[in-house]
Write a structure and sequence with these properties.
Layout: E1 10-16, E2 20-26, E3 35-42, H1 58-77, E4 80-87, H2 89-93, H3 97-108, E5 112-114, H4 117-131, E6 137-142, E7 147-151, E8 157-160, H5 164-170, H6 175-186, H7 190-194, E9 199-203, H8 205-217, E10 229-231, H9 232-243, H10 256-276, E11 280-283, H11 288-295, H12 301-304, H13 306-318, H14 322-335, H15 341-350, H16 362-371, H17 380-392, H18 401-407, H19 412-419
Parallel strand pairs: 1-4, 4-5, 6-9, 9-11
Antiparallel strand pairs: 1-2, 2-3, 6-7, 7-8, 10-11
Helix pairs in contact: 1-3, 4-11, 5-10, 6-10, 8-10, 9-10, 13-15, 14-15, 15-17, 16-17, 17-19
């Protein structure tokens, strides 16, 4: 793929995956790469992929091309300056995958970059590492046709042709058998046992679905997947229930296609948990598309510190800018040197993003915006701490009962720091 310098405006990334085709149009990467457009078309390219040869049907190729035509139009309307397309497992393994690539070039003028399994794992890892920096763990990206693994410390990569759709075919619709197949596949990766895997970093829509189900099951009050964690023993128990078919009642409201593959997603996570013996699972939102985005740009702020980059962008758009926040953080740190200087700066950046609201509503609004912000690189405790820092900057009294309930989740020491 050809690289382009940062600061070229909006960039569109298309992921031609095994389950779906996805378009993300990202804002200028000189600031925080907000997703300004997010489109998806579920085509299940990998349906039926198992052992032996595999081909895309003419109908799916045609539907794929029509989807790409639509994506091209949407990206143009969103004023994307450039469009980068990548294809993964299904197109890579299909005997006629080249047909889709050639027709996209001749009929639509679009160049599809066909990723190897290792490149896919590396790009997914690049995206994930930006949202969970400095973490010693194993990035897990589960798709419809393959499973990609990336070790954040040793930078080893691996790809197995065992995604949820292929596992369903190979296991003859038996999630327990799918788990055994995956465990056999994991044993073929020589570096996996010896690598230091303190945590699993789970990315992708399938893993995010498991996180949301667990959040609902335990009534977790912070409805943000990024930074959500489950300890290993609890994750094993939860996945075992999903594999056994003990699905939450809320799933009856969801699409049947989603429900059908959920036990296979849980089977993959369960096999990984049992094989790596990690301490916990950490869920992150950056993945392959973000990795592709970052790979196309020169040195950009979000890769170094996503939290600060997001907060600086928010302050420049909705508050009083970085200079005022930096000055405030400096004064506060001189008076209170025990407080984390970086978090003080972030809180100062966030503090006034609700300044245009009526004074009586500002505390609640800034709290909700900070708590629910689509930023990365923090766990839920830090997210709550920043939200309370900003809340107390506007009032010393908590009237809202929900916010008062959330205060109990914050350790006592952090409660005191937030009040300061």
């Amino acid at each position: 793929m050809n690289r382009e310098k940062a600061g070229v405006g909006r960039l569109a990334v298309v992921d031609i995956g095994s389950s779906a085709l996805r378009l993300g149009v990202y804002d200028d990467v000189r600031g925080y790469p907000h997703v300004v457009v997010n489109e998806k078309a579920s085509l299940n390219f990998a349906e039926g992929k198992g052992r032996g040869s595999f081909a895309l049907s003419p109908e799916k190729i045609n539907r794929g091309l029509e989807t790409l035509r639509w994506f091209k139009w949407v990206a143009k309307q969103a004023e994307a300056k450039r469009m980068v397309l990548v294809a993964t497992s299904a197109v890579r393994e299909a005997t006629n995958g080249e047909v889709l690539i050639q027709r996209a070039k001749t009929e639509l003028g679009l160049t599809i970059n066909l990723l190897s399994g290792e490149d896919e794992a590396r790009l997914s890892g690049l995206g994930a590492m930006a949202s969970v920096p400095a973490m010693a763990g194993l990035v897990v990206d589960l798709g419809g046709g393959s499973l990609e693994l990336f070790a954040t410390r040793g930078l080893q990569v691996a790809s197995l042709p065992l995604g949820v759709l292929s596992l369903r075919t190979l296991s003859a619709n038996n999630p327990a058998a799918a788990r055994k197949l995956l465990k056999e596949g994991l044993r073929t990766i020589s570096w996996l046992k010896s690598a230091e895997q303190a945590e699993l970093v789970a990315i992708g829509s399938g893993m995010r679905a498991i996180a949301r189900l667990h959040m609902t099951a335990v009534n977790h009050p912070v409805d943000v997947v990024q930074g959500y964690t489950i300890n290993c023993d609890e994750a094993v128990r939860f996945c075992q229930r999903l594999v056994a078919g003990e699905l939450p009642s809320t799933l009856s409201e969801l699409d049947s296609g989603f429900v059908d593959v959920l036990p296979y997603r849980a089977a993959v996570l369960l096999a990984l948990l049992q094989h790596t013996r990690c301490s916990r699972v950490h869920f992150a939102t950056f993945g392959l598309r973000e990795g592709v985005l970052f790979s196309q740009c020169d040195d950009i702020p979000v890769v170094h510190d996503p939290l600060v980059t997001f907060a600086e962008d928010a302050a420049s758009r909705s508050a009083f800018g970085n200079k005022a926040a930096r000055a405030m953080a400096k004064v506060l740190h001189q008076a209170l040197p025990e407080l984390d200087r970086r978090l003080l700066y972030v809180a100062a950046l966030f503090k006034d993003i609700s300044w245009r609201e009526h004074p009586g509503y500002r505390p609640d609004i800034v709290f909700q915006r900070v708590l629910g912000g689509s930023y990365a690189a923090v766990d839920h405790t830090t997210r709550l701490f920043l939200a309370f820092c900003c809340y107390y900057a506007h009032t010393s009294n908590i009237i809202n009962p929900r916010i008062l309930q959330l205060l109990d989740l914050l350790p006592a020491a952090l409660q005191k720091q937030a009040q300061v």
